Amino acid sequence: MKKYAKIGLYLLVLAAAIALPLLLNMSRKGKNHISILTLGMVWAIAALSLNLILGYTGQASLAHGAFMGIGAYCFAILFERVGINFWLAVPITCLVTALIGFLVGLPSLRTKGPYFAIFTLCFNVIVLVVFFNWTWLSGGVQGQAITLPSYLSQRWVRYYVVLFFLILVMLIERQIVKSLAGPSLIAVRSNENLAEAVGIRTFREKLIAFTASCFLVGLAGVFFAMEQQHLSPEATSYLASFYILIYLLIGGVATLGGPVVGAVGLYWLLSRFEKSLGDFRYLIFGLILIFVIIYFPMGVVGGIKKLWEWAKERWGGKEVPSDTLAYRGPDEEVRGVSSD
Amino acid sequence: MTLLRIEGLTKRFGGLVAINKLDFDIPAGTITAIIGPNGAGKTTLFNVIGGAMRPDEGRVTLDDKDITGWRAHNVAREGISRTFQTTALFEELPTWVNLVIGYRMRTRSGILDGVFHTPRSVRERKDTSQRVLETLAFTGLGDYADKPAGSIPQEAQKRLAIGVALIGRPKLVLLDEPTGGVGLGETDEIISLIEKIRDSGVTACVIEHKMRMIMHLADHIVALNFGVKIADGNPQAVCENPGVIEAYLGECIA
Ligand SMILES: Nc1ncnc2c1ncn2[C@@H]1O[C@H](COP(=O)(O)OP(=O)(O)OP(=O)(O)O)[C@@H](O)[C@H]1O
Ligand SMILES: [Mg+2]
């Protein structure tokens, strides 16, 4: 029953996401909203990638802003300066970002908890400084412009491109989490000593999750570059790392919908109130964050799931879904055991 | 036949010698019990065998293979799994997912197999499901399969921890106080589970304080005091050993 409700909900949101640009495209103001939503979805891809390493594997990376910026620049340089085909540059960018992620993960994932967060934050600061100073790479203060192929010049086209890739990333993440590899990652987050004792090579699992996560955030970088059509060194800033983190925390870690709701919703709100509230937005942002972390430690989507389960227990049948995690896998066969 | 051999094993914490030149064998297919007063070094011994700590001296050999100082995950893959004195589980995950994780070291499919749904991934998921069902039945946890491990009764958690250790088909399981923290009237299922482990051909090594249970279960007892072996032999002999009575038992109740 719950399964169908969930699929129905996803289809409804998908239909709305497909229909939205058609409505917005009618007015001049609406066109701006398309761009905002597109960037919101780019951040959603970034938040989903962080979800893999933070939400499921439990390692708080504060370098995802840097990796997104590296992806954006890598793409811009490959496409604009080297002249590689747009759609060929996309996978190359992801692979390059993943490779750098792998190399950064090798030393940094040896550290634990807050030390890992600090290590990755330092990496991010270094990357930002490097991009500011290596003007041959980043274009310095003038930045790096991107001239899109003409078929991408329309906002709604870019919107659908990013929507398509967002869905793809969600599906990939779902497949990972529901496969046998998923529980290994979650085991590292849940109890690292026990995971080691049952034969899980925790360092290897972290490195795999981190590399995969960087692969995906490289994709977010590509579409960031595509939508902005201009990059400055700030694209690699650690501020982006914190944004991604906050989108994920507010939306809900270790869920699939959470990062998307958090990123698109908050990015839209932030842009919406940019004129009227200025920097006061961030104050409100902070308050929302505190509120969510105290009252909904699993984020908005996690909170809704809890409410839903509570309501079902109260008014529904006796079947109570037992976990708040996305992982329900491998097969129905196992579930059958408990019902008889 | 000897499954595990401990030779001259020593572990120090600063000035404290937690285990001191320990020698003993665990015969295959038996239940060996480790007894001794609090702080005798029993848990430390498991930590050193299981790879959670490196010994300072000595050798650990499993089936004639030197595994001294191996890391915990490699020791587990080689065939020694363990439970912890304070029950360790993946608490927020359902019981059956705990078991899936326990079996993970026996499957090889990675995240790309998951993404592309490769034949290997399909096959290994089938295999895992099968093994999870077997282990749920073996440990009698079917009713709790869907419940988060942290929410099931203490006694069932203990059995689940044993199940997580067993599901990967180890040669040897190390059980650190499998009935610790469980009410006296509730230990029967755990005791019969340990007997079932031996009957299924898996060697067990159990740390326990409940002497009556040990006398009934164990084929072989090793007694420790201040990290030193003070007795080693069949239950009756160890129970009547004057050194053991003085250091630990007070009197032999069996
Ligand atoms: N990580 C550690 N660092 C320092 N000292 C330790 C450590 N682990 C154990 N010890 C010390 O080593 C000695 C043996 O401890 P251990 O936990 O092995 O005892 P035990 O026989 O399991 O006792 P119990 O029956 O209470 O579980 C104790 O004195 C303990 O304080
Ligand atoms: Mg102990």
UniProtKB/TrEMBL annotation, chain A:
Primary residence: membrane
One of the record's GO molecular function terms: branched-chain amino acid transmembrane transporter activity
Segments crossing the lipid bilayer: 7-27, 33-54, 61-79, 85-104, 116-136, 156-172, 207-226, 238-270, 282-304
Claim: Transmembrane helix is one of the keywords in the record: yes
Gene Ontology CC: plasma membrane
Topology in the lipid bilayer: Multi-pass membrane protein
UniProt subcellular location: Cell membrane
Highest taxon, organism lineage: Bacteria
InterPro entries with a match to the protein in the record: ABC_transp_permease, LivM-like
Leader sequence residues: none
Keywords associated with the record: Cell membrane, Membrane, Transmembrane, Transmembrane helix
Protein name, entry field: Branched-chain amino acid ABC transporter permease
Naturally occurring in which organism (per UniProt): Candidatus Solincola sediminis
Lineage, opening ranks: Bacteria, Bacillati, Actinomycetota, Candidatus Geothermincolia, Candidatus Geothermincolales
